């Protein structure tokens, strides 16, 4: 059985110095930072507002002073060289510090991180924590460097067609505070990337290299997502316009609270490698997986790690996971979302198909996956 190849190219929107990508690797996480401030929360205001230039201006003004440029420096030969740039948004002040959320790929691999605020002031930033799975990171700077902070709106309340604004530094800090307008194209889009994909907000607001980590806001001036990537081109060379993606605010709030408290994210792991059932040709679903035709979604087990909780539960290659605790698993993104709601040490009930036979097992999550 062979896995079908996706025909799209997804790029993280971090601006390199010469127009290249900004995805870097290798920096150790700052995992010993503890903060005593209370967690950030979602606002419950009605997020549906009439679309007009005055509302857009008002929304922009509420957030603009909280948006920053984030510069990634690498050390070479005794000096620091700027490697890439992205964006970020300040969301809280506490204990003499201001906290900023950005993308992990914006700061990953950096030997030094610098922030430029809305007034052009440059300050050094400390990496509080980062998470490669969700592509999020938290920075802190002295609170005097940030004049205002943004609030998060409930991304579960956004609607297709709703007007949104993207704010950031496309192509770098020389274009800081650039705002683009668009609509929500899809509230929950599964993007086939990052080892199985993630569920994101799709928008046609212009997202360019350098916008990574910047906010996607509604007309109430609330952050409903963190801009992360765009659809750039197909493998055939066809260009694609107006397809940007943002990490939903509900997920952002959960992750930044954990990063601010623990400095890293520790998740339960099953000890398996997977592929989405949708990527398996119909002939293989019948001949190799031997699935009933009624099964149309799931995560296909491609490899089971020896000694893992999955092996102990009886899972094997080509089994298809379809539910966790009664919640449907249509793809890897669903599996991760359901699994990551549990902590290490807790128990889950998993439904899966071994050939045409449906099985249900209870699994104690003793393995850890740390970022």
Provide an overview of this structure.
The protein is mainly β and 371 residues long. The chain has 2 domains: 245 residues, Thrombin, subunit H; 105 residues, Pdz3 Domain (Roll). Helix content is 13%, strand content 41%. It has a 6-stranded antiparallel β-barrel with strand order 11-12-13-16-15-14.
Short description:
The chain is mainly beta and 371 residues long. The protein is built from six helices and 24 strands.
- Class from secondary-structure proportions: mainly beta
Supply the CATH class of the largest domain: Mainly Beta
Unreliable runs: 2-11, 13-37, 46-51
Strand order across the biggest sheet? Answer: 11-12-13-16-15-14
Beta-strand residue percentage:
35-45%
Shape: globular
In DSSP terms (H or I, runs of 4 or more residues), the helix count works out at: 6
Helix/strand order: EEEHEEEHEEEEEEEEEEHEEHEHEEHEEE
In the CATH hierarchy, what is the architecture of the largest domain at level 2?
Answer: Beta Barrel
Gyration radius, in Å: 21 Å
Distance between the termini: 31 Å
Structure characteristics:
Pdz3 Domain, six-stranded antiparallel barrel, 6 helices, 41% strand, Peptidase_S1C, Peptidase_S1_PA_chymotrypsin
Secondary-structure blueprint of this entry?
Blueprint: E1 8-12, E2 15-16, E3 42-43, H1 53-63, E4 67-76, E5 79-94, E6 97-102, H2 104-107, E7 112-116, E8 122-131, E9 136-142, E10 152-153, E11 163-168, E12 178-191, E13 198-203, E14 215-217, E15 223-234, E16 244-248, H3 249-262, E17 266-269, E18 272-276, H4 282-287, E19 299-304, H5 309-312, E20 320-324, E21 327-328, H6 332-339, E22 347-354, E23 357-364, E24 367-370
Parallel strand pairs: 3-10
Antiparallel strand pairs: 1-15, 2-5, 4-5, 4-7, 5-6, 6-9, 7-8, 8-9, 11-12, 11-14, 12-13, 13-16, 14-15, 15-16, 17-24, 18-19, 19-20, 20-21, 20-22, 22-23
């Amino acid at each position: 059985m062979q896995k079908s190849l996706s025909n799209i190219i997804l790029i993280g929107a971090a601006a390199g110095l010469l127009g290249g990508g900004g995805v870097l690797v290798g920096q150790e996480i700052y995992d010993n930072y503890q903060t005593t401030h209370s967690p950030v929360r979602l606002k419950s205001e009605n997020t549906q507002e009439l679309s007009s230039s005055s509302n857009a201006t008002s929304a922009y003004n509420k957030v603009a002073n909280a948006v920053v440029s984030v510069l990634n420096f690498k050390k070479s030969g005794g000096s620091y060289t700027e490697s890439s740039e992205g964006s970020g948004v300040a969301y809280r002040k506490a204990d003499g510090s201001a906290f900023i959320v950005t993308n992990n790929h914006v700061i990953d691999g950096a030997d030094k991180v610098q922030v430029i605020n809305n007034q052009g002031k440059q300050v050094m930033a400390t990496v509080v924590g980062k998470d490669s799975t969700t592509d999020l990171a938290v920075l802190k700077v002295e609170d005097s460097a940030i004049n205002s902070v943004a609030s998060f709106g409930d991304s579960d309340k956004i609607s297709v067609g709703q007007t949104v604004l993207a704010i950031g530094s496309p192509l770098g800090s020389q274009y800081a505070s650039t705002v683009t307008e668009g609509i929500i194209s899809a509230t929950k889009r599964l993007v086939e990337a990052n080892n199985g994909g993630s569920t994101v907000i799709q928008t046609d607001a212009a997202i360019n290299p350098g916008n990574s980590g910047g906010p996607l806001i509604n007309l109430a001036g609330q952050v409903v997502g963190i801009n992360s990537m765009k659809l750039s081109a197909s493998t055939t060379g066809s260009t694609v316009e107006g397809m940007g993606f943002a990490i939903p605010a509900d997920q952002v709030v959960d992750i930044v609270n954990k990063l601010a408290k623990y400095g890293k994210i520790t998740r339960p792991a099953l000890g398996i490698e997977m592929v989405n059932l949708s990527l398996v040709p119909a002939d293989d679903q019948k001949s190799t997986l031997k699935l009933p035709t009624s099964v149309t979604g799931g995560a296909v087990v491609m490899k089971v790690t020896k000694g893992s909780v999955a092996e102990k539960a009886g899972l094997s290659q080509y089994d298809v996971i379809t539910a966790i605790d009664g919640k449907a698993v249509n793809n890897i993104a669903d599996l991760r979302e359901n699994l990551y709601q549990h902590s290490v040490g807790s128990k889950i009930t998993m439904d899966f198909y071994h050939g045409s036979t449906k099985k249900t097992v209870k699994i104690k999550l003793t393995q850890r996956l740390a970022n």
